[in-house]
């Protein structure tokens, strides 16, 4: 499948949507209390919009982005009209079923978890494959599947190369030249040669004056 054909698998507005930053103040309606940009026009694809901007997008397909724990979500009832969201896990937030727009990596799945997102490893219910729309877009790409299959081989090749480099460095240390590695610890200042002739002389042995009075130290 070529790149152009792969792009046609998804609506043209999906990738721009996933890259947008929502819940920022609208530059055109900054003086209004309804200036928060949480809307998006699927027909114009000209960035996040506030509710007042929608006056210029009549009869357009506009969707509302919501927020959950600082992550963007959209209601299933809205997005499923325009996009196939099968295999993406849904959540119930404020009594509404939603899906997340982008990945939320989870390096350490919970104990007993048997299913995780195929892209970012977030814990999932067994009936789903992806945690977000973005992960589905990436995870169903032929390039991603090909890379995923080749990754173990690349890791083994990188490991072999690293071992070879380590052996070469070790071998060179026994030959005519030694590999030097940068050091981030302060170097010890060079020792200064001591001139014993100018060094401070030790205290001399007290000598008694001939007439038996004061004692002098030389």
From TrEMBL:
Region (Disordered): 142-218
Transmembrane segments: none
Domain of life: Eukaryota
Signal peptide region: none
Ranges annotated as biased composition (Basic residues): 197-206
Pfam families from the UniProt entry: PLATZ
Listed Low complexity bias regions: 158-192
PANTHER family tied to this protein: PLATZ TRANSCRIPTION FACTOR FAMILY PROTEIN
Protein name: PLATZ transcription factor family protein
């Amino acid at each position: 499948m070529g790149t152009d054909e792969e792009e046609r698998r998804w609506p043209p507005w999906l990738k721009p949507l996933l890259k947008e930053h929502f819940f920022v103040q609208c530059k055109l309606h900054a003086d209004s209390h309804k200036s928060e940009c949480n809307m998006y026009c699927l027909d114009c694809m000209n960035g996040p919009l506030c509710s007042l901007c929608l006056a210029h997008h009549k009869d357009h397909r506009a969707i509302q982005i919501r927020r959950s724990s600082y992550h963007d979500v959209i209601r299933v009832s809205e997005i499923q009209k325009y996009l196939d969201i099968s295999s993406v896990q849904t959540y119930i937030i404020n009594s509404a079923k939603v899906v997340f727009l982008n990945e939320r990596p989870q390096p350490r799945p919970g104990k007993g978890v048997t299913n995780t997102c195929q892209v970012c490893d977030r814990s999932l219910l067994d009936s789903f494959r992806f945690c977000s729309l973005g992960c589905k877009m990436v995870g169903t790409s032929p390039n991603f599947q090909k890379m995923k299959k080749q990754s173990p081989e690349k890791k083994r090749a990188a490991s072999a190369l690293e071992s070879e480099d380590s052996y070469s460095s070790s071998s060179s240390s026994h030959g005519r030249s030694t590999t030097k590695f940068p050091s981030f610890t302060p170097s010890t200042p060079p020792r200064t040669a001591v001139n014993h002739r100018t060094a401070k002389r030790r205290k001399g042995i007290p000598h008694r004056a001939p007439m038996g009075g004061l004692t002098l130290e030389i």
